[in-house]
Structures are given as structure tokens and as C-alpha cells.
Design a protein that fits this description.
The complex is a heterodimer of chains A (302) and B (329). By secondary structure, chain A is an alpha/beta fold. Chain A has two domains: 212 residues, P-loop containing nucleotide triphosphate hydrolases (Rossmann fold); 65 residues, no CATH class. In chain A, strand 4 and strand 5 form a beta hairpin. In chain A, helix 3 packs parallel to helix 5. Chain B has two domains: 240 residues; 82 residues, no CATH class. In chain B, 36% of the residues are buried. The chains are: A alpha/beta (302), B mainly alpha (329). Chains A and B meet through helix 2, strand 6, helix 3 and helix 5 of A and helix 1, helix 4 and helix 5 of B.
């Protein structure tokens, strides 16, 4: 698969601290990639760099083979960006925010953007400042989606939305990927809300990439091993987490553990377990190559 | 793109337009009232300032000072109200992250925003310039008696230079806002910086944009309509030896001032100390001169001042583009 977004040794320094460092990853075209990590891990920094809002201190970031740069019209035409702060002109009416999108973008889809907000019962003639935080987030999202970008960079699009609205956003993202072949990179704090839509996952921790892989390969390559404590001997296995309760040990490992001793059993972890195990150990790294094996995941379209 | 800027600034543009309209209306009404008052007091018939007209003229002078003040402050208001927020308010409210992520490059965004504001500013200032020219020629003969259009207050509000000054103020506010990125600081820096530039322009740059005319000082007072008195100085008469103990101009001037003062003390009536002073300078081969920009230089100075402002505009616009292109979160 060709990459919609590719970074090589990407780094961004803020004064003396690195917001992101040594970041090398690919986001496949047509994928929905989730970006998780604790606060301050560099998720927003990565999205800003990809959107050209920020520029790298080192390394490179390319979008469809083109340098991420807001001074390039051809780059801007292909990328939609939803900032974490949802900046909007607060004195504008909602319909004027859509007009802004229309005036500033060649490939603007006024009908979909308007319909999207009307379905959410957001009054188009209201001033943005009078809307709730969640409604403002939806307006910002409508401006981003109305542009019909090939790559959508969404910084926590589900934050401040109610469960029903989250479902609507999920559906819209899936539709744009299915219908237009768009690529989505979205960040979130909540793994369970990414699982039903994402086919790829990036875990950032302490400004570095911990994991970048398809969700299928993550699930296939990680195992939970449960057995008697003291009889652990696993070679060639990357142990991500281990805990001992009484005489029983539970391990989350990456790779094939091979034949295990007596009393041990192998279980399949769910995605949240894997992610939490990585997040708990910021220095743990995925060893397997990020792209293999590639397999299609049945997305929950309900 | 122009729609966006218009939408963001329409209230401010309308307020400034109202201010301009108010100035124009004020000029028209006061001029009209003034002319009929002059006719009724008899100035029209005789063409001289009758004592009966002095009240009318002093009233008109205070009206004229309102107009001059109102016009002089306008470029500054434009810089403050339209220029400063152009970039700074976007950076402060983070709306640049929205605006610059649309399909328009940052450079285009800035140039189009700037242009959207410059066009109404230039139109309003041009209308105002025409009105001011008309107003000055009508009230000039009696309110600014014995003066010339080139003299400071009239020069600074008339002609083409105020149009360029307003475009400069707009660009200055925008440039300062781009550098600071915060409205409050940008307002402070624009306020100080703009008046500093105006001061330097009127004090040093504009007077030297055309060759000055040196007029030797004589005992008789020079007519004020001669032009814009730029500076007072001294000129050495060529070929005349100056004694070594009197070589520096300041010591000669001090010496002659003392002589003139003592002569006025001796002659209780006084009156000819300036003659004594000038003769004393002459004996030391010095000549007191006043440097003028003559009235005939009015338009050349206007165009050149406008040229300087427009060069500054180009530099500031370049700076703003550079800052906006390089900005990163």
C-alpha cells in the first residue's frame, strides 16, 4: 500500500524539550489509523506536523509524497485538519463558518456539510459563541469534512461529544473512507472508541513511537500467557508486561511463544489490553515489522 | 478570501467610514456657515479682516483645529483598529490554525486580507484628501492668513501623503501584530512606533526630501508665507578670515548674543539689538540663515513623502509575509 502520510526521523523541539522525536512511520492510504498515547506523548505534535501547522525541527514529513507545507496550495487541497482547540470565529454564525469553507476551498461540499449540521439540529443562524462545546466541535468537524480532503488529520474528534454524536462521527468517517477512499488519522485517549473504526494503530509514548501496526497484526502477534510463577522461560519473545498474583503469573508478550511448559495457557488479548500494556511501559517497543501481516478487518458498520 | 476579511472587519470598517463621513460633513457644514458669516460681517466686500469679523474667524480657527486633529489621528486609528488585529488576533485566538488549513496558502491569505483592508482605506483617504483640498482652499485665505499649504499642520493633512500614511499605518499595525502575536502588546507597540515614525518623518526626513532654500536673516521679520521653516542656522561667508580665538560657530554666536544684549541694556528703548547681533555675526564672517522648504515644493514633497511611506509599506508587508510563512505551532 502506498503511504498517505510518511515520517522519517521526525522531531519537533519546543525550546529544550522534544514534543516528538525519532518518529518514523507510515499511514497507509485508505486506512483509518488511530493515534493513542498519554497526555503529552506527542499526538497533537505529530498531527500538527502532518498538517503543516507546525514544521519539523529534524527529519521529514510527507503527505502523498509531498512535503507538509501550508505554503503549498496542492498540499492544502488534499489535507483536512481538525485542531485540538477547535478554533472557530466565535462571532460568525454557523452558516458563515460553512461559507468560509466554501470560499476558501475549491472542492467544498456545501450540501453534506449543511446536512451534517442540520441532522445534529445545530441552528445554522446561531452565532458560534452561543453553541455548546460539543456543538462547536461539530461545526469545526463540518468545516474540516466539507473540504473533502484525501487525508483527514483529526485531533481527538470524539472529545466533548455525547455517545450518539460519537456514533455519528464514526459513521461519517467510515463513509468517507468507503465512498471517497479518504485516509483518516485520528487521535484519542479512549481505545475502545478507536477499535470499531480503526484498522491501524500508532501508540506514542514519551515523544516516541512505541507501536505502529495494523490492528490485525497487533492482535495476531500478541498473546497473554498465564501460568505458575517461577517456571517462566520464554526465549525470543518480547515481554511487554508481567504481573504476579499469588502463585500465578500473567504475561503479555509479542511474538510466538512456541511450546510452553506444563500449566501454561495462551490467551488472546483484546486491543485495549495490548495498548494499556504498552502505555504502562513507555520503554517497551514493538519488535515485529509494522506492516506484516496485513489483513483486512471487518469493520463494525452498525 | 476577501469575503472572510470583510466579514471579520466589517464593523470596524463601517465605524471608520462613519468617522470619515463625519469629518467630511463637519468640513462642509463649517465651511458653509463660515462663508455666510464672513459675507454678513463684511469680509467679502472689503477683503480685509474687519474687526467685526474677528469673532467669526477665531471661531473658524477652532473648528479648523478640530479638523486638523481629526485628520492627523485618522491614519493612527486605521493602524490600530484594522492593522494590529490583522495577524495578531488570529494568532491570539488560534484561528490561524483554522484559516491556514483551508485551501488558501498563508501568503495568499495575508496578501488578500491586507488588500481587502487597503482598498477601502485608500478610497476613504482619497475622498478625504479631495475634501481637505477643497476645504483648505476655501478657508485658507482667512483662517490660515499669511501661511502656505506647505506649513506643517496643513501639509500633514493635505495632498497625497496622508493616503500613503494611512496605508503605512495599516501595514505597520499588521507587521507589529505579526511579530508580537498578541493584541495588547501590539496595540502598545503600534501606538508608540507609529507616532515615532511620523515624528521622524516630519522632523527629519520630509524636510530633506527636496533641496532647502537658505534665506539670510535680516532685521526685518521674514513673512511666514515664505514656506515651511525647517531649521535655523549659520553660513560662513567664503574667503573671509576668522580669527583663531573665534573659530567655532557657537563661540561667535555666544559672543554676538552678549554684545546684542549689552547694547539693548544701554539703549533703554531697545529695538535694534537684532541688527547689532547680525552685524556682529557679519564682522566674524558669519551669516544667520533660515532654511525653508518653499511653497513651490509642496507637491514634490507630498509625492516623495508618499513614496517613502510606500517603501516602508513594501518592507513591512515583506516582513509580515515572512513571519506568517515561517510561523509554526
Amino acid at each position: 500500500m502506498t503511504a498517505a502520510l510518511e515520517t522519517v526521523d521526525l522531531g519537533r523541539r519546543y525550546m529544550t524539550n522534544w514534543g516528538l522525536r525519532n518518529c518514523t512511520l507510515r499511514v497507509p492510504e485508505g486506512s483509518i489509523t488511530g493515534l493513542v498515547g498519554p497526555n503529552g506523548a506527542g499526538k497533537s505534535t505529530l498531527l500538527r506536523l502532518a498538517a503543516g501547522v507546525s514544521r519539523p525541527s529534524e527529519g521529514s514529513v510527507t503527505v502523498f509524497g509531498q512535503k507538509a507545507d501550508q505554503n503549498s496550495a496542492s498540499f492544502l487541497a488534499r489535507v483536512g485538519y481538525l485542531d485540538q482547540d477547535r478554533p472557530l470565529y466565535k462571532q460568525f454564525r454557523v452558516e458563515e463558518m460553512l461559507k468560509l469553507g466554501q470560499k476558501l476551498n475549491a472542492s467544498w461540499d456545501q450540501e453534506s456539510a449543511t446536512q451534517w449540521l442540520m441532522d445534529l439540529e445545530i441552528p445554522l443562524d446561531w452565532k458560534v459563541s452561543l453553541l455548546s462545546t460539543g456543538q462547536q466541535a461539530q461545526v469545526a468537524l463540518a468545516v474540516c469534512m466539507g473540504k473533502r480532503p484525501d487525508l483527514m488529520l483529526l485531533d481527538e474528534p470524539m472529545a466533548s461529544l455525547d455517545p450518539l454524536a460519537r456514533r455519528g462521527v464514526t459513521q461519517m468517517l467510515l463513509d468517507s473512507v468507503a465512498v471517497r477512499g479518504a485516509t483518516v488519522l485520528l487521535s484519542s485517549q479512549i481505545v475502545s472508541e478507536l477499535e470499531p473504526i480503526c484498522d491501524h494503530l500508532i501508540i506514542l509514548s514519551k515523544s516516541q513511537v512505541q507501536v505502529s501496526a495494523s490492528i490485525g497484526s497487533l492482535l495476531a502477534n500478541h498473546h497473554v500467557l498465564v501460568g505458575p510463577e517461577g517456571s517462566m522461560s520464554f526465549n525470543l519473545v518480547n515481554v511487554i508486561s508481567s504481573k504476579v498474583a499469588g502463585r500465578q503469573a500473567t504475561l503479555l508478550v509479542e511474538g510466538d511463544p512456541g511450546t510452553l511448559g506444563s500449566g501454561w495457557q495462551v490467551l488472546s488479548p483484546d486491543l485495549e489490553e495490548i495498548v494499556l500494556a504498552y502505555l504502562a511501559k513507555p520503554n517497551a517497543r514493538q519488535v515485529a515489522t509494522s506492516e506484516a501481516p496485513t489483513e483486512t478487518i471487518d469493520r463494525d458498520l452498525s | 478570501m476577501m469575503w472572510l476579511t470583510w466579514r471579520r472587519y466589517r464593523v470596524r470598517i463601517i465605524l471608520l467610514a462613519l468617522y470619515v463621513v463625519a469629518l467630511i460633513v463637519f468640513m462642509i457644514i463649517t465651511e458653509h456657515a463660515y462663508q455666510s458669516a464672513l459675507t454678513s460681517c463684511g469680509f467679502r466686500a472689503t477683503g480685509t479682516q474687519l474687526s467685526a469679523c474677528s469673532g467669526v474667524i477665531s471661531g473658524a480657527k477652532s473648528h479648523a483645529s478640530y479638523v486638523v486633529d481629526g485628520l492627523q489621528i485618522l491614519p493612527f486609528l486605521i493602524g490600530l483598529i484594522l492593522g494590529t488585529p490583522l495577524i495578531a488576533s488570529e494568532l491570539e485566538a488560534k484561528t490561524n490554525r483554522l484559516a491556514w488549513a483551508q485551501g488558501v496558502t498563508r501568503t495568499r491569505w495575508l496578501l488578500m486580507s491586507w488588500l481587502t483592508l487597503v482598498i477601502p482605506v485608500a478610497i476613504a483617504m482619497s475622498l478625504l484628501a479631495l475634501t481637505v483640498q477643497w476645504w483648505l482652499t476655501h478657508v485658507h485665505a482667512s483662517v490660515f492668513v499669511g501661511t502656505s499649504l506647505i506649513q506643517s499642520s496643513q501639509f500633514s493633512i493635505s495632498g497625497v501623503a496622508p493616503i500613503a500614511a494611512a496605508v503605512f499605518a495599516l501595514s505597520f499595525g499588521a507587521g507589529v501584530g505579526a511579530l508580537w502575536g498578541r493584541i495588547s502588546w501590539s496595540i502598545a507597540a503600534t501606538s508608540v512606533g507609529f507616532w515615532l515614525v511620523v515624528g521622524v518623518m516630519m522632523g527629519w526626513i520630509v524636510p530633506s526630501l527636496a533641496p532647502q532654500v537658505a534665506v539670510p536673516l535680516s532685521a526685518a521679520k521674514l513673512p511666514s508665507s515664505l514656506g515651511w521653516l525647517v531649521s535655523e542656522g549659520f553660513r560662513r561667508n567664503p574667503g573671509v578670515h576668522v580669527g583663531p580665538h573665534m573659530s567655532s560657530v557657537t563661540s561667535i554666536v555666544q559672543h554676538c548674543t552678549n554684545i546684542a544684549n549689552s547694547s539693548s541694556n544701554m539703549q533703554t528703548g531697545g529695538g535694534n539689538e537684532s541688527l547689532v547681533y547680525l552685524n556682529c555675526l557679519k564682522s566674524h564672517s558669519l551669516q544667520a540663515v533660515n532654511f525653508y522648504q518653499p511653497a513651490s515644493h509642496y507637491w514634490i514633497l507630498q509625492w516623495r513623502e508618499a513614496g517613502v511611506y510606500l517603501a516602508l509599506v513594501a518592507a513591512l508587508l515583506g516582513l509580515s509575509v515572512w513571519v506568517v510563512r515561517r510561523w509554526r505551532a
